[in-house]
Specification:
Length: about 200
């Protein structure tokens, strides 16, 4: 203690000035970086943190913004060679055949009467009323910016609070993926409405 107080280095004015300058430069640097991050978040408000900010904006707005961004990024890949076109046509045929197989599978594996008898408990009815997607909601979400309605090629199945929504949102970012806005709950709540409703 006696050493610190008696040492002239710590009582003279020169180190105090250096300390002051050091503190000032740190403060200015901190201020600069704060302003920079603030500017960036204003410039790119939604794209980078879509999954986490989704609750603050309407789903349509974010979806359209992301889709536009992704499509504009892939515009350079729009010119196809003849071979690529042929592959694309055969892929479309494969998809049509896959859809047909899906229809057949649904018809054979799960009859409406079996489904209705097995799954319609009172609790489920109540849950159905609370969470089920209505026809009009689904139609709005399905046909917002594209027209042809098809059966899905992939289905996300998961327990409640299992993170299915996060998976859907992550997949939806891809420009080749089209997904419904709300969970359709076809197999457990809306099966009786039939495949035309499901498309
Ligand atoms: N990667 C990862 N890690 C940990 N937790 C995650 C993850 N992704 C989603 N979540 C959380 O999962 C909750 C939502 O799950 P679901 O989308 O299946 O919910 S729902 O049942 O369809 O409403 C929801 O939890 P709550 O915020 O408590 O509701 C999400 O925050």
């Amino acid at each position: 203690m006696a050493f610190w107080s008696s040492t002239s280095v710590f009582t003279s004015k020169v180190p105090r000035k250096i300390l002051f300058m050091f503190t000032l430069s740190l403060s200015v640097t901190y201020l600069f970086y704060s302003l920079m991050s603030c500017y960036n978040s204003l410039q790119f408000p939604l794209q980078e943190n879509y999954a986490y900010q989704g609750r603050l904006v309407t789903e349509e707005t974010t979806f359209v913004t992301l889709r536009e961004k992704l499509y504009s990024a892939s515009q350079g890949f729009n010119e196809f060679t003849e071979a690529e076109r042929t592959t694309a046509v055969s892929t479309v045929k494969d998809h049509a055949e896959a859809e047909q197989r899906t229809v057949e599978w649904i018809r054979t594996q799960a009859s409406p009467t079996k489904s209705a008898a097995a799954y319609h408990t009172t609790a489920l009815e109540r849950e159905h009323q609370e969470f089920s997607t209505t026809d009009s909601e689904l139609r709005v979400n399905c046909t917002m910016d594209y027209g042809v309605k098809k059966l899905p090629q992939a289905i996300i199945i998961g327990v409640k609070k299992g993170g299915t929504r996060a998976l859907l949102e992550a997949l939806r970012v891809h420009p080749d993926v089209r997904a419904v806005g709300n969970e359709p709950h076809f197999f457990d709540r809306n099966y009786e409405k039939g495949l035309d409703w499901y498309r």
